[in-house]
Write a structure and sequence with these properties.
Layout: H1 2-33, H2 42-63, H3 68-79, H4 86-94
């Protein structure tokens, strides 16, 4: 069972990395096309990208039938302090 959990955590990390790379490539294209129209600080853009990545992970795991509590426990193991709060994760899992 422990090997299965490690494999799932590795899959979550890989999914997050793929999403982050894809989102970054899309955002850089958008920012290049609009020149310097984005007035948001880099940290705000990074936070929005992290939120989008985490929402995607929650959506994926919810569709697999996982409960919000289980999803968030796994996300805390992977993201640490950057993981969403329980209430935010529960809200996101209900909006799918």
């Amino acid at each position: 069972m422990k090997e299965g959990n490690e494999q799932i955590e590795t899959s979550l990390c890989m999914l997050g990395h793929v999403l982050r790379c894809h989102i970054c490539s899309l955002s850089s294209v958008r920012l290049c096309q609009s020149d310097s129209m984005s007035s948001e600080p880099v940290s705000e853009v990074s936070k929005k990208l992290l939120d989008l990545e985490q929402r995607s992970v929650i959506k994926f795991l919810t569709k697999e039938g996982k409960k919000p509590k289980e999803i968030l426990e796994r996300m805390v193991a992977v993201y640490g302090e950057s993981a969403p709060s329980y209430y935010k994760g529960k809200f996101w899992s209900k909006t799918i």
